[in-house]
Each structure stands twice: as structure tokens, then as C-alpha cells.
Amino acid sequence: MTLVLVGANPTVAKDVESLPGRLVHVQLPGAPALGCADQVLAVNFRDPPTFLAFADEVLRPLAPTAIVSLTELGMEPAAMAAQHLGVTGVTPAVVCATRDKLTMRRILERSAPHLNPAFAAGDDAPAVARLFASYGRAVAKPVDGVGSTAVALIEGIGTLPPDRRTSATLFEQFAEGREYSVEAS
Fold first, then answer.
1. Under DSSP, is residue 2 helix (H, G, I), strand (E, B) or coil?
2. What is the Cα Rg of the chain in Å?
3. How far apart are CA 69 and CA 102, in angstroms?
4. Per the confidence metrics, is the pTM higher than 0.85?
5. CB 46 within 8 A of CB 69
6. What 3-state class would DSSP assign to 149?
7. How many CB atoms lie within 10 A of CB 19?
8. Is 45 exposed, middle or buried (0-12, 13-18, 19+ CB in 10 A)?
9. Which of 132, 147, 160, 173 is the most exposed place for a label (fewest CB within 10 A)?
């Protein structure tokens, strides 16, 4: 069994060392050194044509069993390469759904509404108004953001900046209490 792990950070690399089989890491050029692995390869996996050529020329001969990632930057390239080579991996459609916060909220709304806070798309003015009327304040975040970049607590609709009233923003009910952040692929 050969597992290809795309875009691991040193913590993830250490955590997967005990997995059975052969472990191959694919990193961006200049990324931090990783722990033990059977092989560490460097390629710009953020450039799809370059990475697919690399998958054909370098990964295919390794006969990977699976190509996966446990980091946001590596999820899409890993899914694309797994599909391209016909090996086990998360499908690109699933990765796209997890990366688009509004799409994910809509999926949760249908499948697990009890896990979903109230939300509104930034360009749906009536829904945004209802959200603020019901909860007073809301969390604004980019639909396609990563790592909490540009996430803000908006204290009321009167303080809502115009640049947040677009399809690129998701508003969510502010949930009081302890915060847990989970990243998965």
C-alpha cells in the first residue's frame, strides 16, 4: 500500500508516520522539512496543469493506493490527482462543497439542520435583514476563505459595510459559548 499525502505540515507529517505501508509526501518547493517518510517530493501542486503532469510522470509509477490531504491547501490538488489517476481519494465535488462555506451551510440545512446555525448569503438582502433582526449580530466570513481570514463579528445591520453585501460573503448567527475549530478532508 502506498499513501500519497499532499501538502502536509510538520504536525500532520508526524501524526501519519505510524500508518502502515509506504508514505510519500508531496510538498510545495521550499516548504518546511517533514519528519520521516519513505519519500518527500516537491512540486507546485497549486498549479493544476503542473500537478497533473507530475501525477502522470511521478506519482503514477509509484502505484499509489490513495492520494489525500489533511490541509486546506492540499485538498483540491489531492482530490484532482486521485480522480485523474483513478485511485482512492476524496472526490473533487466533495472538496468543492467543503471549501464553499455557503454550499456547506445549505447541505447541512438539508441533511442536519440541528447542527446548522442560522445563516444568510451576503447578496440576499431580505435574508440578511431577517438574520440581524433575529440575532442582533452575526459573523461575516468569505464564502471561499481559509484560516479565519477576513472573518468579522458585525454588531448590527447598521454597521454592515457595503463590501460585505455580496455573494462572496456568508453571514452566520453568532453562537455564544466555547469555540471548536475542525479541519478535515
1. strand
2. 20
3. 22
4. no
5. no
6. coil
7. 11
8. buried
9. 147
Q: Which cell goes with 135? A: 440575532
Report the alpha-carbon distance of residue 162 to residue 143 in Å, rounded: 16
Cα separation, 136 vs 63, in Å, equals 54
In this structure, are residues 179 and 172 in contact, taking their beta carbons and an 8 Å threshold?
A: no
| C-alpha distances out from residue 103 to 56, 65, 99, 140, Å | 31, 30, 8, 15
Contact 172, 141 (CB under 8 A): yes
Which amino acid belongs to residue 133?
Answer: A
**No. of helices (H) and no. of strands (E), the chain:** 6, 8
Q: What is the spatial distance between Cα 154 and Cα 160, in angstroms, rounded to a whole number? A: 6
pLDDT digits (tens, 9 = 90+) for 113-166: 998 899 999 999 999 999 999 999 999 999 987 666 789 999 999 999 999 999
Task: Give the tens place of pLDDT for each residue, 8-66.
Answer: 888 888 888 888 889 999 999 998 877 666 788 999 999 999 999 999 999 999 999 99
Kindly state the cell numbers that stand for 121: 448569503
For residues 26 and 50, give the distance between their C-alpha atoms in angstroms, rounded to a whole number: 13
Distance between first and last Cα of the chain: 20
Contact present, 132 and 138 (Cβ < 8 Å): yes
Dist. CA 162–CA 69, nearest whole Å: 36
